[in-house]
Amino acid sequence: MADISASGWESLQGLQLTPVVPDIYCLRVQIANLCFVGDPARDESWVLVDAGLAHAGERIRRAAVDRFGDRPPKAVVLTHGHFDHVGALLELCRPWDVPVYAHPSEFPYLDGSTPYPPPNLAAGGGMMTLLSPLYPRGPIDLGHRLKALPEDGSIPGMPDWQWIHTPGHTPGHVSLYRAADGSLIAGDAFTTVKQESAMAVLTQEPEVHGPPAYFTMDWAAAAESVRKLVELRPSWAMTGHGIPLAGEVLRRGLADLVPKLERVAAKYARALQ
Fold first, then answer.
1. What is the CA radius of gyration of the chain?
2. Which pTM was predicted?
3. Cα of 273 vs its chain's centroid, Å
4. Which of 80, 83, 212, 244 to pair with 171, CA 20 to 30 A apart?
5. CA–CA distance, 261 with 273 (Å, rounded to integer)
6. Could you tell me the domains of the chain?
């Protein structure tokens, strides 16, 4: 994995795409990351993972052309359907017209049926939490493009990868893992920045942190999902918010995160009694 400090990650944003490993480049669009998976030196096909915020479509397309030329992706894969992961999706799908894969439990938020629940203003604290009532909750309607991820765990257009159901932040959240080199694209199953804090978002100070608290729907499931990821012992991870982390810093941080999330889950369970 490329050795990228927080300040280096910020400076690289001007270069559009940031290399993490040879076939994975990332793009930060304001507060969220998305990934371009594919190596144009070896294969013409590529996949976009998540789609950033609204009005970012042109920037994403320019970055894609820089990396892959005029070829559209073979598919878009969604970790989940929150506004900062699907914001530019309809804008991108109009010219590309490619399938969009997601877990079936996420379909109500992607087929026009159901908005996400209102944010929890009591969770997490921080300016980003206070602003969360202003964030779009959807749903969006992907129409015929919306497809279910294969039941066997494979990912169309991403050979050697598997998707792992990591619910909690949302019911159909998935993470993407490649066992051959321990690569993990985790979406918001966890983050590497305290996303509730505007200062942390601005500085991108790295830390292994839970999913954005204000929109997390099931804390017990979130803790169990991180436990699944701990067992994979990933060599590096790219999350939906924050910079890439690798090695023991990542693995130790994930292991320490599980009991923290379990304590949050227990707190909410007591509140419901």
1. 17
2. 0.93
3. 32
4. 244
5. 19
6. 6-272 (3.60.15.10)
